[in-house]
Amino acid sequence: MLASMSDGPDLASLTRKPDRAGDRALLDEVLHEAHVGVLSTVSDDGFPWSVPMLVARDGDRLLIHGSSGAGALRQVAAGAAATFTAFVVDGLVVAGTLFDHSMNYRSVVVRGTLERVDPADAARALDVFSDTVLPGRSAEVRDHTRKELSATVILALPIVDGQWLAKARSGGPGPDADAVGWTGHIPMRIVYDEPVTETHGELPASVAGLYRQKTNRSQP
Fold this sequence. Notes:
This protein has about 220 residues and is an alpha+beta fold. About 20% of the residues lie in helices and about 30% in strands. The strands form 2 sheets. Strands 1, 2, 5, 6, 9 and 10 form a 6-stranded antiparallel β-sheet that branches. A 4-stranded antiparallel β-sheet has the order 3-4-8-7, sandwiched between helices. β5 and β6 form a beta hairpin. It is globular, with a radius of gyration of 20 Å.
């Protein structure tokens, strides 16, 4: 029997370290930046089922997609309760003791029941995927074929109040950490290297734009 989302605890607030709770802006930020997360559900035989997947936010819903033969997608498409989690690591926290070492991060959890995307909206939904990861790419390639669309399952997970949670940690060691020698934090970020050519031709604007944007962001 599939569980109702109303049966689970409210995800609107943190019970531990409530000062790390984030707002909807943080949720959107993490989902835009992470690109990848983990879809989790429970199979018919009662065992947990977690699958790393690409994700794209489309307004007030998350989009995931995959092969029409994928077992986990069939399970959640049938109405099984699910959660989607994603996180970004922003730095290493170096304290005076190993116990107080930590990481700076941003993370999100979205819970609910997934729905199949209307076939009339399938092509646009796949374009959202492409343009989330590589902005502008959908305009540079041909349209999706009917065969490609029929081989792809596209599901949406609504972002509903009380069914999502965002958290973040930033800065150095906490005030209660023992300071022995140097302490602080080491920032981390995503940087794209120079594109590697497989077929010759002019570098697409989408690739050039992403590479230059990330390269410029990485300069001191």
